[in-house]
Amino acid sequence: MLGPPKQRAVLALLASRAGDVVGIEHIIDAVWGSDVPQTAANGVHTYVAGLRRVLEPDRGRRGTSSVLASAAGGYCLRVSPEATDLTRFAQRHTRARRAGTDGDIEGALALYREALALWHGEAYAGIPGPFAAMERTRLQDLRMTATEEWASDMLKAGRHGEVVADLSAVVAEEPLREKLRWLLMLALYRCDRQAHALAVYTETRRLLNRELGIEPGAELSNLHQDILAGRAVTACRDRSSAPAPASTADSPDGAALHMPRPAQLPPLARGFVGRAVELDELERLLAEDEVRSGAGTAVAVVDGPAGMGKTAVALRLAYRLADRFPDGQLFVDLGGTGVQGEPLTASEALAQLLRSLGVDDARIPADLAGRVSLYRSLLHGQRMLVVLDDALGTDQVRPLIPRGASSVIVTSCQRLTGLAIRDGAHQVRVGPLSQSESAELLTYLGGNRLRVEKTVITRLARVCEGLPLALRSAVEGLIEARDVPPAAVVERYAEESGLLDRLSARGEEDADLRTVFEASYQALPTEAARMFRSLGPHSTDLISVQQAAARAGTSRAMARCLLDLLVDGHLMERVSMPGGDPHPVVCPVVVGGGMHAAPGASVGSPR
Question: At 166, which helix (H) or strand (E)?
Fold first, then answer.
């Protein structure tokens, strides 16, 4: 009825974002992933036309669609989000949790039953493409979480015998999910089926050893001991009573140790100013994900040009949210810019994360897939905040995203579009500080040296163009040059190419303007780097795709692809030109004019 599989994949994507415009490029990525045929765009138009015929059979061939509308380079399914099963499920799930928290167990159970009754088999069954695959996994986790919460409330209500059959069925679906097995063991024990409960534990231990090389978690082991001793066991709604993931750290006598609670966030930078809009948006997006997605992992990407203070924004957000993640905070510097050496691979980053979670080196799997499996198993059921700083690309980040109720904050000089498409990540760009914010930061950092120099502050704020790293470096330079009038120091900074050369921190490469900008340039593919060099002398001009193609000596199609890479790397910006090329760009000026005259020297040697 709804057409071929890819046509249904287009509908599935649009329905998941009902009421929002989804760009054609996003649809292509969601349906085809990396295997994109040349006819993909035409295919999208064909599938949309087919869907319109199905959804509005009485509409004329040339009539405007009121259900599946064209808008702003994409398509919008104009239906209420409440028309989708997922939204109705999420609403009932949220209300059920709230009722249980308020002590209305029977009301919560009724809402859980309504929510779970909306499921009719596997989500996105038979739908191709990376988006559907990602959603299938996320929604399965969401259903399992709701089932666990329902079962916990059933046990709390004393209805043990009614949940055994349902729990046995879902344990067969998700055999490595320890909380389900914990609930099944407790239900069997309360039904006076002690032997069956102990058999579940024996099976669980054998399975975890064989599949992951680990022992059951502490709570599962404790329940086992309680059953052996014949002790009474309660089933609380509080998540702290739920089974924790298995620990791989062993004590000398072989008993499993509790997984440590990491608290790895670096200290906040002194003198943080501005960014209220970005922080509020990030907090809102992550909170909405928690409400709408249940167990789905919320991911936010803070991107922008080098030196914009992305890490400071991410850490400020992390500290603001820390109390929502009682199981701790993990932090990894992925080294994507290569300032401190080679970037970490996903496998190396996972090894670091596993050590932080108490896993001995001898128990860390050698292969990437094994490390991903163990990492996600350890964080399953945990509310952990994971901060991944300075990411190089999507492939480096994706294996580090856990399943479940954790959240992830990523910073990158690259625009990680693939992470948004396949993993539902939110992208928030960090731009320059305003003139007033720059002045505020300079006044705070400069202390008595600058407090009375209002003219100098205004001039320096303009020279640094709102770049936080430049502003901080400039203040340090002023403090060091105590014998030189501040106005004279600022004018030296304002000289052609002066700021990149002068605002450097000896021995601190990650605080050196030239180094951080060159790192972004060095990350470019060879042809994109050549395009960037060809446009350097024209960096104050608006440049159309046609002009860029002529200056680089390449085709228009190739020029557009290369310019997109530069925009994604935040080395150029796309702007609108009324009546002009649909893909114009403007090359941003590196602070102090560093790219104007000698792009090869200013942003790395020609390659």
Answer: helix 164-173
